Amino acid sequence: MIAEVLADASSRMDKAVEVAKDDFATVRTGRANPQLFQKVLVDYYGTPTPLGQLASLQNQEARTLIVTPYDKSALRDIEQAIRDMPNLGANPTNDGNLVRVSLPELTQERRKEFVKLVRTKGEDAKVSVRNIRRKAKDELDALKSEVGDDDVARGEKELESITKARIDAIDEALKRKEAELLEV
């Protein structure tokens, strides 16, 4: 029973770490990267649809990305969704067949803003890991009558080590992203 609670908490924490890494990837550095557009939702026939399902994304140059829609009627909606995306500063242009997205050069001030944004995302991820820990701890406490105090205490120590490892993984990913952002 304790092992099941720990395994569930561990897998959910792993997912939280992966979500944090994906969130970090959506914050842009100096290069155009298709992952930047991972969270762009396009209003496609009244339904918010991820951009990756509506178009192919290709790097043309360091700061230019080509978005080729599968359905040409969605061109204007794709262009508007990219323009409205916060923290991107992208300038999309539509030539009738595809959308060319030019990303401006990052200034030092903008880089620092992105570092703050990444730190906020990292803190949110840590909070989610801690919430998973709290829920698992409550489940372990509920098992005290069935398995005994000593086993629960061992389970809680194991839970703390699992939590620390996941928080350290988030911190490491955060450190790498900050270095990437501040690199000129």
Describe this structure in words.
- The protein has 184 residues and is α+β, with helices and mostly antiparallel strands.
- The protein has two domains: 1-26 and 107-182, Ribosome-recycling factor (Topoisomerase I, Chain A, domain 4, Orthogonal Bundle), CATH 1.10.132.20; 34-102, Gyrase A, domain 2 (2-Layer Sandwich).
- The chain is 60% helix and 16% strand.
- The chain has six helices and six strands.
- Strands 3-4-6-5 form a four-stranded antiparallel sheet. A two-stranded antiparallel sheet has the order 1-2.
- A hairpin with a 2-residue loop joins strand 1 and strand 2.
- Helix 4 packs antiparallel against helix 6 (149-182).
- The longest helix is centred in the C-terminal third of the chain and has 35 residues, at 108-142.
- The protein is elongated.
Short note summarizing the structure:
This protein is an alpha+beta fold.
Please render the helix and strand layout as text.
Elements: H1 2-25, E1 41-44, E2 47-50, H2 51-54, E3 55-61, E4 64-69, H3 75-84, E5 91-94, E6 99-102, H4 108-142, H5 144-147, H6 149-182
Antiparallel strand pairs: 1-2, 3-4, 4-6, 5-6
Features of the shown structure:
184 residues, alpha+beta, Gyrase A, domain 2, four-stranded antiparallel β-sheet, two-stranded antiparallel ribbon
Q: Main sheet?
A: 4 strands, antiparallel
Categorize the overall geometry. elongated
**In percent, how much strand structure appears in the residues?**
15-25%
Give the tally of β-strands.
6
Structural class, from helix and strand content?
alpha+beta
Q: Estimate the helix proportion, in percent.
A: 55-70%
CATH topology of the largest domain: Topoisomerase I, Chain A, domain 4
Sheet with most strands: strand arrangement: 3-4-6-5
State the name of the first-level CATH class of the largest domain. Mainly Alpha
Cα-atom radius of gyration: 21 Å
Q: CA-to-CA gap between the ends?
A: 51 Å
Q: So, the CATH homologous superfamily of the largest domain?
A: Ribosome-recycling factor
- The overall pLDDT average reads 87
For the record, the CATH architecture of the largest domain stands as Orthogonal Bundle
Low-confidence stretches: none
Function: Responsible for the release of ribosomes from messenger RNA at the termination of protein biosynthesis. May increase the efficiency of translation by recycling ribosomes from one round of translation to another.
Family: Belongs to the RRF family.
Main location: cytoplasm
Subcellular location: Cytoplasm
